[in-house]
């Protein structure tokens, strides 16, 4: 009989409280130790146990107890070392002896606040349900009354505009011998506009991402531009860019982000005189869909030498960007001054636009921008957007879904007749269930000029393990088992930047085919069907009414 | 798909000519309507060129309301033409079909044509607003020297119903459309041709980009950009917007509705302007499949295709008379004595432009001029 003292484990958690339970098979395990070595959170540990067995031989029961020493792999019932379900243990196991299993009855959030520290993580909102974007269907199919187009034969122009577009009435045109010419003496400012691919890679910083991941994305989009002729652009995120890239011809494929911490901007400003190309655009970050109202956060453990160099900060300190741009106190000033200064830095040759998180107040920002002739676009990041580090409560409970937020902004522009003047960029949950092209097309038909992806490209191009069951989501800790969001060279050497680049190209090429497969039967090929809301339906009357589209079931 | 028949000529001809041309293309329309817009009128209107003509349909009660409204607005009735209705099976006669020529209100005696055009359009819109809820009045055009007739039914039967074969009504330009109903209700305001301030077009094919185009036009703040009971009405309004509001030469209509690729634009002498137009007027790209026939206030007629050339269209004729049709058999019917080898089948970059009085036909090409 065990002593009473050893049975009293009242303050220990049972494994049932944890989100993932390790299934370990004694019979398959050869005790190589790879799983326990690789586990990023030390949720499993090798242990030595005394095993008592009772045996009886012969016709008459003669039980004898025997104690043997056994070696096992055990899950640790410690909330600080909870199994995240990443499955790296399964990846390295030679005998398929171990795997984590999701525990839907877990009480993880009840306990993940030890020491009064609220739970922080990376990833996106833990909501595995089907989003509105995934419920939208394309129902206006040209067929017999009009020929549908052939995605394989007809010429498609899947392009969009990034930048402020003049209203036709304000074009400085004059007639010379029956031909229209741009009147150079009109003094009219023609804002810079880029023709880009309508799916862009959203802001993920050098620092949040590991060197091979960021490099892989950058190489991927450069290849898409230079070889495939697809003008895909990518946003730097806050944290600057590698100095060599700033001075290279590839800068034109990048949108440089400035956020409230201004990290990396010392280097950018110093590189300005040496730039041989203008960047695609400048994004001013005011908010992020995953954590509205929160600033950026790069945890100390990720601030290694390279990052401290690019950002111009000491190593191993938490890099927090404030929630707002501290030098500004009103929307008018924040938007106008920032846009003006950024435009001026590049001689008004580069589109400058703000990014905000999805919010009920988006229309107020929008209308401010609509009145500002230098505002190049508005990027709205919905609640399903991802992040490298945030409080769980911000991610799960704060923010606005992108669909209706984007739609009401678009319709507001329609009311003012400015829907072509101020492009809307939609983000947050695009490709959440893997339907990248369909989600992008749906947002475009609701009124987006372009969409931004982040989490999706990490999942598709670098096998990010995170999902909406809170799997992995270790981005903030610097312990990313895939080597995507870490600055630890032992981890990121697992990631091959060439393979990431290859996957980026594959992802965009296949999305391009799928977009054509959506647009062709709808009879659209020459221009992106921005705001073609009659093409969409949904099997939910309330959503249909809210989005101003038809109900179909 | 609707069938279109337009004729432009240096001399007056009967509206039966384009209707008979439509008849040759009968397999292509379902008899859901006939619309006729005539410009440069002969017959009883020949001497009334400067007086605006209000074309429409009303009930008896509607006619009284109309009279009262016009009187109150200061218009004085100069001439009333009504078709001599012949009962035709299947066509339900409405009470009053009319084309009324008015004298401008005295206050407009010395006004510019632009001011008069604003008055005429606003008057038409006001009457439409009064008559549309109870369908007591429909008005299709209100402009000098332009007459519009519309009715639901088979084109040839509608023409007989209006007695066009016996009437002496004639014109030098006539656009006729035999409607194939698509997604939108059979409704008089959905019948082509559509007209606004001297600009008129008719179209075949479905307009897949209708909603974004409609929203863009509606946002221009111009009261005439309304209606849109048919997805084809936007083609007329794009023409009006491009040519009248923005004052672009007619050929740029083609650049607006079917913008070229940037590499193609680079070869144009007006590349900079065309590039700017492509961006600023991006939502007006029609994206096909459509063929558009139209006329402008000076009597120029044209035909354009969508950028994939997915709709048929042919222009043929002799100096002084040209036919713009959906199909070759329509041209054969309208101008049988011509050299068929000179017929023009406009391709995706082409815009066929016929000068006033059908003097000359030119093909303007987006790439080569």
Task: Describe the overall structure.
The complex is a heterodimer of chains A (553) and B (369). By secondary structure, chain A is an alpha/beta fold. The radius of gyration of chain A is 27 Å and the shape is elongated. Chain A has 18 helices and 23 strands. Chain A has 2 domains: 12-117, Alpha-Beta Plaits; 155-186 and 197-531, Aldolase class I (TIM Barrel). Chain B is of the alpha+beta class. Chain B has a single domain (3-365), classed as 4-Layer Sandwich (Glutamine Phosphoribosylpyrophosphate, subunit 1, domain 1), CATH 3.60.20.10. Chain B contains 10 helices and 16 strands. Chain B has helices at residues 16-24, 60-73, 113-131, 155-161, 210-218, 233-245, 252-257, 262-265, 271-280, 328-334; strands at residues 3-13, 34-41, 52-58, 76-81, 96-103, 137-144, 146-151, 171-178, 194-196, 199-204, 291-295, 301-305, 314-318, 321-325, 350-354, 361-365. In chain B, the strands form 3 sheets. Chain B has a 6-stranded antiparallel beta sheet, covered by helices on one side. A 6-stranded antiparallel beta sheet of chain B has the order 9-10-11-12-15-16, covered by helices on one side. Chain B has a 4-stranded antiparallel beta sheet with strand order 4-5-3-6, covered by helices on one side. In chain B, helix 1 runs antiparallel to helix 10 and helix 5 crosses helix 6. Chain B starts with a strand and ends with a strand. Classes of the chains: A alpha/beta (553), B alpha+beta (369). Chains A and B meet through strand 9 and helix 13 of A and helix 5 and helix 9 of B.
